[in-house]
């Protein structure tokens, strides 16, 4: 499970769609990818493609768009995940603007709890984890099923980061660099030779001219 978090209008949906395309393209078993989103939001701000990707490519036929209105739609899809046949498990599940599916007032009323939004998010994240775990146990040595979420944060830290950190091992952060480009950063811990090395990977990208453009990749290792 992975989270992509960044400020508004920084290209998160474009990055998610690129991930969906790459997952469908590289699947040796031609497994599909499920892209879960709100239809109105997607149509109002459609994702940009990388230059060189043919919009008529057959790969897009393996990306299944699933439109939902709130978190209950996500829960219903995940709750039936164990009913999949082995060959029908997707290569990846992508959920765009995950946090926006949890309306604060709606969650409080449904769950009868002042912290209803937090509880609803935890329950859905638990379903996400259980669905992915079940799929990968069933797939055994085959290609794993991956799950990528995105969320919008305002300021320096993602909204409800303390919840995400408990459920999601890989968190990617986006921030602007002040020149029209954005920096995508991942922090991983890797063990080797009895010591722990912190690896910081960064990618500089932009959505200039309605294309998703990778400008630079930087990797730093600190002993």
Automatic annotation (TrEMBL):
Organism taxonomic ancestry: Eukaryota, Viridiplantae, Streptophyta, Embryophyta, Tracheophyta
Name of the molecule in the record: Uncharacterized protein LOC104613508 isoform X1
Molecular-function GO term, any one: single-stranded DNA binding
Gene Ontology biological process terms, A to Z: double-strand break repair via homologous recombination
Organism: Nelumbo nucifera
Name of the gene this protein is made from: LOC104613508
A cellular component term, taken from the record's GO annotations: Shu complex
UniProt xrefs under InterPro entries: P-loop_NTPase
Transmembrane annotation, as ranges: none
